[in-house]
């Protein structure tokens, strides 16, 4: 039996509601690192470091899709909870079309600035040509990337979580197959990795657009769009935490790379890239969970069902903290084999990365509840608190820690900064939840 946004959620039903978006995000994170695996093992260490260096720039641009997806879905879910389905569809359509327009403009502008941006990010002469090639190719695919991010959340609002998972599987299989073809067979190197990625994103986005353009059994359909400024602005403010969070994480990634080049050279950049890839997979569980629960929260907020809001919050806090603890243990115990997937060819790099992963893994204990809290307030249409939590977590605390801790602890201070920043963010999340309890009645 299908899960409805209006249901009362037991642990069993909650699991059923979030399993598809969790699997979707885990699969997306796995196929997202395929470029790194192929480039690291079959193209070389310098191209792999170049890919890691330029990737934060791509994520900064693509954060617009996350913003409209998270913020727009919260607004649309609230309208559905109020019983205004026609208005919800018009807002949904307006957000999709507006995202396409913005993506085209930004991609066209950024394409020409990739060389200067790569230098600004710290690319060495050896890394620069690879960074430019990969960066420009992925920027050409930003429209598809933004739409892919957008539809990830709207599939849940449409009560079609399985569609989101299917789209991620299609994109993943396409990317992996083309990576093998373009890199191993055609010998296109890092360019092949980029072309494989944007092709996979394009296939996923196109299928989603076609599905929602036609009559379907979901709650949403692309119709005559509503381009009212207040709805666009509301979607942007609602999703500001996801937007700023992704930008902040990318900026922090840039700072991490700069610090690592200082303390460990290109080996440090390679190791950090591996940690980010592995972090994508582990945190994908929490992101998927948040995507799955956000429309439920938004719907019940619109329906003024405070008891269900309290139920979702209580269960989610318990589940994310428990899962985070399990992930920390798994990440610590499997640090060597996970690192070996990328750098088995170098004993020194493997040892260096394994040590980093053993420290970094403990950040998962708190990252889940922090990710959920930000998403929870986005779903309540409170973009201000959500953005506040997200910026402190992904920018302020991490930036502070990554500059201060290495002064005393050298390279290990960089890895420990992830743990300390998550602990500080957890304290802020706890305060925000308690202070707003009366306002929202959860």
Description:
This protein has one domain (11-440). The protein contains 19 helices and no strands. The chain has helices at residues 11-32, 34-42, 45-81, 85-111, 114-120, 128-140, 142-157, 161-185, 189-213, 229-238, 240-263, 266-302, 306-333, 335-343, 347-360, 364-379, 383-409, 411-435, 437-440.
Main beta-sheet annotation: none
What would the average pLDDT be, to the nearest integer? Answer: 90
Residues in β-strands, percent: under 5%
| Rg, alpha carbons | 21 Å
Outline:
globular
What quaternary form is this?
single chain
Provide the low-confidence segments as ranges: none
Number of helices: 19
Distance between the termini: 27 Å
Q: Which class of secondary structure composition applies to the elements?
A: mainly alpha
Helix content: over 70%
Order of helices and strands: HHHHHHHHHHHHHHHHHHH
Number of domains: 1
Would you count the extended β strands for me? Answer: 0
């Amino acid at each position: 039996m299908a899960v409805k946004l209006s249901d009362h959620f037991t642990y069993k039903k909650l699991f059923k509601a979030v399993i598809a978006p969790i699997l979707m995000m885990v699969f997306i994170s796995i196929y997202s690192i395929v470029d790194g695996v192929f480039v690291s093992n079959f193209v070389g260490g310098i191209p792999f470091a170049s890919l890691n260096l330029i990737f934060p720039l791509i994520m900064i641009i693509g954060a617009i899709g996350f913003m409209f997806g998270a913020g727009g879905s919260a607004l649309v879910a609230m309208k559905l909870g109020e019983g205004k389905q026609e208005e919800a569809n018009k807002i949904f359509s307006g957000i999709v079309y507006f995202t396409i327009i913005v993506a085209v403009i930004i991609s066209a502008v950024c394409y020409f600035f990739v060389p200067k941006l790569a230098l600004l990010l710290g690319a060495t002469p050896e890394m620069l040509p690879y960074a430019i090639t990969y960066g420009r190719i992925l920027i050409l695919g930003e429209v598809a990337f933004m739409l892919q991010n957008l539809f990830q959340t709207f599939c849940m609002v449409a009560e079609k979580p399985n569609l989101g998972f299917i789209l991620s599987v299609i994109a993943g299989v396409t990317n992996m197959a083309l990576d093998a073809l373009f890199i191993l067979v055609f010998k296109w190197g890092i360019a092949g990795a980029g072309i494989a990625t944007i092709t996979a994103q394009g296939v996923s986005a196109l299928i989603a657009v076609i599905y929602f353009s036609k009559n379907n059994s979901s709650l949403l359909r692309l119709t005559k769009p509503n381009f009212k400024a207040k709805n666009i602005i509301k979607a942007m403010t609602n999703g500001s935490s996801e937007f700023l969070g992704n930008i902040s994480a990318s900026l922090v990634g840039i700072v991490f790379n700069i610090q690592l080049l200082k303390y460990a050279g290109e080996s440090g950049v390679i190791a950090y890239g591996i940690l980010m890839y592995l972090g994508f997979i582990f945190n994908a569980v929490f992101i998927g969970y948040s995507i799955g629960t956000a429309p439920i929260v938004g719907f019940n907020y619109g329906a003024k069902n405070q008891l269900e809001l309290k139920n979702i919050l209580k269960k989610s806090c318990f589940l994310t903290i428990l899962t985070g603890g399990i992930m920390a243990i798994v990440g610590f115990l499997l640090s060597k084999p996970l690192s070996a997937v990328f750098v088995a060819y170098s004993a020194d790099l493997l040892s260096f990365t394994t040590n980093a992963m053993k420290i970094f893994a403990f950040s998962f204990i708190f990252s889940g509840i922090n990710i959920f809290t930000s998403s929870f307030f986005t779903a309540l249409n409170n973009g201000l608190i959500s953005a506040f939590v997200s910026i402190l977590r992904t920018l302020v605390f991490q930036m502070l820690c990554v500059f201060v801790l290495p002064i005393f602890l050298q390279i290990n201070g960089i890895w420990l900064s992830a743990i300390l920043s998550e602990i500080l963010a957890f304290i802020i999340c706890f305060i925000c939840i308690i202070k707003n309890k009366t306002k929202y009645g959860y």
